[in-house]
Amino acid sequence: MSINHLEQFTITRNRTEDICAPLEIEDYVVQPIIDVSPPKWHLAHSTWFFEQFILVNHAKDYEIFHEDFAFLFNSYYNNMGERSQRHHRGFMTRPTVSHVLEYRKYVTKKMQELIQDNPSQEVVDLVEIGIRHEQQHQELLVYDIKYILGSQPTHPSLGNYFDLKAEAHQQEWIKVPGGLYNIGYQGDAFCFDNELPVHKQYVQDFSISTKLITSGEYLEFINAGGYKNFDLWHEEGWHFINNNNIETPLYWQQQDGKWFCYTYNGLEELNRDIPVMHVSLFEAYAYAEWKGMRLPTEFEWEIASDKFNWGQVWEWTNSAYLPYPGFTKVEGALGEYNGKFMVNQKVLRGSSVATPPGHERPTYRNFFGAGNRWMFAGFRLVKK
Fold first, then answer.
1. In this structure, are residues 298 and 266 in contact, taking their beta carbons and an 8 Å threshold?
2. Distance from chain centroid for Cα 44
3. For 301-338, b where at least 16 C-beta lie within 10 A, e where not — what string?
4. HSE of 333 in the Cβ direction (CA atoms, 13 Å)?
5. Strand, helix or coil at 200?
6. What is the pLDDT of residue 167?
7. pLDDT at residue 336, rounded to an integer
8. Dmax of the chain from CA atoms?
9. What's the pLDDT at 353?
10. Which residues pair with 261 in a beta bridge?
11. Counting Cβ atoms within 10 Å, is residue 280 exposed (0-12), middle (13-18) or buried (19+)?
12. What predicted TM-score, i.e. pTM, was given to this entire model?
């Protein structure tokens, strides 16, 4: 394994801890909702992945750090044995944060030794997946930390992190001719199995916006009664916003006639020029209906992605998260990484300001449930 793998591994491990550095010790254990995992759990789970998938099977004479950790920090891998329930992660005051950091230090050292010991190609491939896995958890950490602090009544500030930039350019509509296009990852570097195999996809002519919908534009939808007009919503979306008393994007609130939004800097006056984010697929769809337009399919987005800027927020598409034709799961636990979730999810494309550098690519298929809002997600439109 090259020195680059060792460097990438070490940089990745350090970055996870850097994301948590501004936290107070009390912040590490909180789980306000089931979708949000405590930062302590992320630190431990990303370490568990390297220990259980690599060190236990490939490091000579390896001794596990603690016999309970395989149970406590498994997420959803049935092949890896029993695990604690997801909604109980916030109940774990033990192991302590300091104990988890000791666990990280121990596993990081053992992994560095293994990487420097001329490992097999199988280990090299597993290390690559482990790095990408931890990078995914870095982005989830950013979302979860914001939700934990955003749920506090005092709107605490961590600092100037993960800010969006204004969508300053004029909106243009890119016309893309219909036809057969290759879809899927075609390079030689790493990709996830859900980006494969490359296959042909037919699309009709379409026109896609170069500009993401901004907070100011979305505010017009709110002021026009968008959340009160059932004709704009999916049936499930209409029930979702009404059952949960949703009338704005997550983190928005109105005070004395002014709009504010919670950010890593605390509660700030709403910046109307930046992309709207923290909206569900339901809300993105309703806005598109209000404008007489629609959301792109994931295939349209990929085909046109070299013609516009992307990377501030993940972008909802109107595509269900399904396997590509010819998709096959690998055997064992790694086969549970993506394939088992290919139902009741929607695809998001692009990346966000919280995406680790080098982790973004136009074929990357992110996926969440239609009602999820805590991630950094927005949208652009396609003309009907």
1. no
2. 18
3. bbbbbeebebebbbbbbbbebeebeebebeeebbebbb
4. 16
5. strand
6. 85
7. 83
8. 66
9. 98
10. 252, 268
11. buried
12. 0.97
Q: Cα dist. 196→185, 228, 322 in Å?
A: 6, 41, 12
Cα separation, 125 vs 80, in Å, equals: 19
Q: Enter the tokens of residue 40.
A: 């302590």
| 328, HSE (Cβ side, Cα atoms, 13 Å) | 3
pLDDT in the model for residue 42:
98
What are the pLDDT digits (tens) for 200-247? 999 999 999 999 999 999 999 999 999 999 999 999 999 999 999 999
**Separation of CA 202 from chain center:** 28
Low-confidence ranges of the chain (pLDDT < 50): 1
Give the pLDDT confidence score for residue 115 in this predicted structure.
Answer: 96
> Which domains does the chain carry?
3-150 (1.20.120), 173-383 (3.90.1580.10)
CA–CA dist 288, 213 (Å, integer): 10
Fill in the DSSP letter of residue 214: B
Predicted local distance difference test score (pLDDT) of residue 338: 87
Instruction: Tell me which amino acid residue 256 is.
Output: D
Q: What is the pLDDT of residue 150?
A: 97
E strands of the chain, at which residues?
Answer: 173-176, 179-183, 199-203, 206-209, 252-255, 258-263, 266-269, 293-294, 314-320, 346-349, 366-368, 377-378, 382-383
Q: For residue 68, which phi and psi values (nearest 5 degrees)?
A: -85, -20
Q: Are strands 314-320 and 346-349 parallel, antiparallel or unpaired?
A: antiparallel
pLDDT recorded at residue 384: 82
